[in-house]
Design a protein that fits this description.
homodimer; alpha+beta; Beta-galactosidase, Chain A, domain 5; 11-stranded antiparallel beta sheet
């Protein structure tokens, strides 16, 4: 048994919790989420409704119900079930011998609980999952066992009384009987989208309610004899199937048994896991915690069509089920290294939203592609102008994430370049990449200012990764990232001179782009070896450690940042910013510079974003700062397990799984501790934590999956794929056959 | 008798108030201020101390006592006097038959009050003034009359218990007897400046106290027989006289009687008034109100050496006794038209502070002259980074008046150009003007950004005259004003090619300046005939009338502006901005455009700056919008008489005389209603208010003072100076001999 947190353990690959209090329902519902990249079913129990935060969030169902927040909808719950005895739900009795599990390898969740019905012990077990083999299908099996003979009523049905974060999305919900089961249909509040849910179970007495349709079935239990009931839910929307009702009926009709569905899903899960099966020996808690994070990263990632990874996946509607820069910078690496097809799908999503990005640019007086800070289906900007509020006055605050955090465009460009470079997918570059890169460079060229006085281009009025400091100039992260993308775009255009398209730069544009690439200001390393985060940053008040600034809070829910929060006139960072630059561009600065900046910035960083720990862990691991690295990795791996982050900031609910952190945890282990990189081929400079005996890591290389086992002294190829793999270790090139080793010393 | 306000009347040129309550002491002390351009003695009474807001503010005594606000010091009060009866001040008795006066033509103030001393009626009269003939001298005469014989003690002395707004400036105050009187010396808190005050009066029993030195004199009054006592104060600082003590002693020693001093001062006042003697016939209240404003503008203006006009003159220490753009834009016109030597002196002050402006530019990474937003002696920036506070949270607010309100530099340049053009003072241009203009243009060139995308230079991140909107781009006022100055600088450089100096632009600079003059973005007149105040202004919430926005206040003392005040995301202006542009550059836009913009912007303007009404009155008068013009002129003329403005904003005391409004009131009458302008010669297109019969106005033209009497149909030269005056009326040129008339019709 591996202890992970209070009442939270693991055995093998199974997460176990033996303690339940309703107030943990929000967080446990997220942590025990079942999903498959198409939908997520919150880890609540069969009898749960809105007040227990029950919700099934389905991809591509964006809807704006409150006039402010567009978000994915929670749909009608077709796995609703309850057990009645003497006209009351048995779950209103005290829960005994409670145990819930989630098998990370198979995505199967169970709940077992025993209820005392005036002397009769009734044990209820539910087992359910979101099928990885058939993304629309959620099967459940209920097993009832009683210590004495007892008569009960089993309710199974579809319930529309689900948790919805910002307004009611489901309008005109209608319930009906269909062949073999029940159905519910609804139209989303302000869209044409129609969602349909079907439920398959043997029907008995049908009861229609305002928000539900139920089948009531009398059940007589005999002592100690388990009785089993199945219930299958199918869901889709007209965005996936124009004739959604028919699709649901057909799917339900063809649906095999729970066990057959389970077997198919287990097999699909095995395939999904294969490239991501990292084994950490010597620290079982790290191993399982990494699995938890990888599991959540995987179920948050749409594979069925180009759609974004939501910043909270399908665990909650917060962050609008939409992509941020998280997708390219935090979630992409695991796919770039282990399953490039998924990386490509995510980039196709960004290609698909190019028109939205172009419209956004135009709206603000720019050209090219200004990607949405919060990007849903179309790429139009979902980020409202006002979202936090000044809790002291109750007034809304204008934060400019949507207007000034322009690095999003360059981050997308960076991901395109990374993917093409690493997998030499020139077809992608020609079909999509060049166009995206050209429009991103065009945006940059329309966004820069040339300052005659300093004879250079500058990027004025931005917000860097450290979101507390808005309205800053020449943010080092933004400028370097923009410069990298522009320079590489020009190179790609040169390489693919035969490609034609209206998106290509005119001769005049090309001249300008080249001039910008030559004269864009890149904040230099100063005499102290430091890079200034933005112009004037070093003049701000220095508070070390940064946490001390929190003493200035007047209200715990205050927003810390722009325009007048407690950090604004200090050097306190929300999260990695210059360190973020090192994380993705280690090639630009030598180790000494990176170490000096790490030493300067880390104590000034509040780490009040879940994006901060992985970045620090990754950079520290690369630099051989193993204590720092391990500390931040631990924080990252356990963010959702210990659930230490605030669920509300500036009055806005931000709870749910930290999907970027989930994905980046993989990157910390691979790019950080294993020292994996790509530089015209695989690079590996491991810095294993002392606590680890070995790390086994699959990587997708030259079209196939290879596996490497890294100890403190050797790197061994443990896969059987024929052929040699070229790998650079400490600047030396090695050619590794399958099942061979090479010794290394830590750089 | 002319009624001006509650309990406030005028007879002839004398302001009279017959009602006194201590809580009006702040405002009445300002309104009844005595002064001479060197110092101001607040209109309080002889027995007044700190708690009655007594203060004598002396020029060139800047000191920072609280670590935040540098301000002029209030010095020891050498006109302190009190009358004791039975060991108590007679002024603690109820005041009867109170009457205070201020003669606007002579600057002489009186207070008369009768006190019942258990049946004996004692009438005390004090008469005092700040000598216009000798700026260091303040004479006072006290007359006591009793209805019955009574024995009193007259105290005369020097009192250091004076009002000081921000901290105690007077350190180590020492008191002493000197030949013929008393003296007090003090060192200012954080400067080397030493101030010395002397008092001349017959000495009797000397009493030294912690904060004062007094002479106690027994006085026996006989019934109905007035007895008179004189008291003369002299003050200077080591900034004026290195041996200040000696100077004070010498001056006191040579000092003639009260009556002789009075006669000399009256004569000096007559000379001062001569160029500003405007007569309005048909509206006596307007006439006197204009006199009140002109009086205060005159006593606020240093003439003895190049020093700034404080934004509150010497009436209070608020606004730091320092110059703002007010000086060039609001106070300068009356001098430009009526007494150019004073205008020149003010410009020499700006020349003297050029090094401060260059240092400020350098500090912020620019070149050339970035004039201080709040400019004291040296031109270093006196405006703190934080001055208002968020009254809801108590947190200081960072407002960027000192960093973003860059139009100050161009306003100075504009005044230089105006002065030289109007008085053809090419010597000034060669000796000072070219250098100032070059450094101002150099600043502009270092401050602009060239936006390749729009192929133009822009001025990014500024604060225009409407101070509630900070961090805006391409403020029309700023851009047009900057452009005008740059263009005219290039022309002046061309005209004076033989002038040499290190300040001249290099060839490279010259090319850049010419390019900026050609391609600086000037916000155009749009399809609706409107000029956008700044980029994106029209997208903000429109609230008409602007006052409605005040309903959103949570606290009456809230600051309305940046970063999160109630006006920030609305079109509500603090004060004239685009209209301000018309006020000083009517030549740039035709009447139709000006009218359309007036109609758009005026209802969106809160007029929460005393700078707003005169600008609106002036522009409206020029446009023939006489009701509008008259309404705003009335508001302007009575700001300090009715005292309707808030004394505190965002937690900061801003009370005192509105010196810019005082000066600009003259401009409203002359440039507005008389339609006076200078365009290669005198222009006059009058739009007299219906209520006025005539307006008589002196103007300094071709080296001499001329006077014009304007009625609704004719313009008459009423002076006797020989020679013709050329004048354009409705685009027709006339040559007016002395004592001749020309008819006109209103344009």
């Amino acid at each position: 048994m591996i202890q992970l947190g209070p009442h939270l353990t693991a055995e093998g690959t199974t997460l176990i919790k033996t303690h339940y209090t309703p107030k943990q329902a929000i967080n446990d519902g997220s942590l025990f989420l079942m999903g498959n990249g198409y939908l997520g079913m919150r880890g609540t129990f069969m009898e749960a409704k809105k007040d227990a935060y029950a919700g099934i969030i389905v991809s591509d169902t964006w809807d704006n119900a409150d006039g402010k927040w567009e978000e994915l909808s929670t749909v009608m719950n077709g796995l609703f079930a309850d057990i009645m005895w003497n006209d009351a739900s048995v779950f209103t009795r005290p829960w005994q011998d409670f145990k819930r599990t989630l098998d990370l390898k198979t995505g199967i969740a169970t709940r077992e609980v025993t209820l005392d019905l005036d002397g009769t012990q009734l044990t209820v077990k539910e087992e359910k999952f979101a099928s990885m083999a058939d993304r629309h299908t959620l099967p459940m099996k209920i097993t009832l066992t009683a210590s004495r003979a007892i008569d009960l009523t089993l309710i199974q049905g579809i319930d529309a009384d689900v948790w919805s974060l910002n307004g009611t999305h489901l309008k005109d919900v209608s319930f009906s009987e269909i062949p073999g089961g029940l159905a519910a249909e609804a139209t989303l509040s302000n869209a044409d989208t129609h969602v349909v849910v079907g439920m398959k179970a043997p029907l008995h007495t049908i009861v229609k309610k305002a928000h539900a349709i139920h089948s009531h079935r009398a059940v007589s239990l005999t002592p100690d004899t388990p009785v089993t009931f199945e219930q299958i839910m199918v869901v889709t929307s007209t965005n996936d199937h124009p004739n959604a009702s028919q699709f649901v009926q057909d799917t339900l009709h063809a649906c095999p048994s729970f066990d057959a569905l389970k077997e198919a899903s287990i097999q699909a899960w095995e395939t999904i896991w294969r490239p991501f099966n990292i084994t950490i020996e010597g620290a079982k808690d790290d191993h399982v915690a990494l699995m938890v994070n990888t599991y959540h990263a995987l179920i948050a990632t749409p594979r069925h069509k180009p759609l974004p990874i939501g910043a909270r996946g399908f665990s909650a509607q917060s962050y609008q089920g939409a992509a941020f820069w998280d997708q390219e910078i935090y979630n992409m690496p695991m796919y770039l290294y282990a399953e490039p097809e998924v990386a490509k799908n995510l980039l196709l999503y960004r290609y698909q939203t190019l028109s939205g990005a172009k419209e956004k640019a135009k709206k603000h007086g720019f050209e090219g592609a200004f990607y949405a800070w919060i990007s849903g289906k179309t790429g139009e900007e979902l980020c409202p102008d006002f979202f936090f509020k000044d809790v002291l006055s109750g007034r809304p605050i204008r934060n400019h994430f949507n207007l000034w955090q322009i690095h999003i465009s360059f981050d997308v460009g960076f991901a395109v370049l990374r993917y093409v470079e690493q997998h030499q997918d020139h077809e992608f570059m020609r079909d999509y990449g060049l166009e995206m890169l050209s429009e991103i460079s065009r945006f940059l060229a329309s966004r820069v200012a040339y300052i005659p006085h300093r004879e250079r281009y500058e990027i004025i009025r931005v917000q860097g990764p450290d979101e507390y400091h808005e309205n800053v100039d020449n943010n080092a992260f933004t400028n370097y990232q923009a410069h990298y993308v522009l320079k590489e775009t020009l190179r790609a255009l040169e390489q693919h001179r035969d490609v034609e398209g209206a998106f290509l730069p005119t001769a005049k544009e090309r001249t300008l782009w080249e001039d910008i690439a030559k004269r864009l200001y890149l904040p230099p390393v100063n005499a102290d070896g430091l890079i200034e985060q933005f112009d004037g940053y070093f003049d701000l008040e220095s508070i070390v450690p940064a946490e001390k600034v929190t003493e200035r809070l007047q209200d715990p829910e205050e927003y810390y940042g722009y325009p007048n929060g407690i950090t604004v006139f200090t050097q306190c960072l929300k999260q990695a910013d210059t360190i973020q630059l090192f994380s993705i561009h280690p090639e630009l600065f030598d180790e000494k510079v990176q170490k000096a900046n790490y030493a300067y910035y880390e104590p000034r960083t509040l780490h009040f974003s879940s994006l901060s720990p992985t970045t620090h862990a990754l950079v520290a691991a690369r630099l051989g700062l193993l204590d720092e690295a391990y500390k931040h990795m631990k924080k990252a791996l356990f963010i959702d397990l210990l659930n230490t982050n605030e669920a509300i900031s500036g009055g806005t609910f931000i709870g749910g799984m930290h999907t970027a952190n989930n994905g980046a945890s993989w990157a910390v282990v691979a790019e950080g501790f294993a020292g994996v990189a790509y530089d015209h081929g695989l690079v590996m400079n491991p810095h294993l934590p002392e606590a680890w005996e070995s790390l086994t890591l699959p990587l997708f290389l030259d079209g196939a999956l290879r596996t490497f086992k890294i100890t403190h002294t050797t790197i061994t190829r443990t896969d059987d794929t024929p052929g040699r793999v070229t790998i650079q270790i400490n600047q030396q090139t090695h050619h590794l056959e399958a099942q061979t080793s090479v010794p290394y010393t830590r750089s």
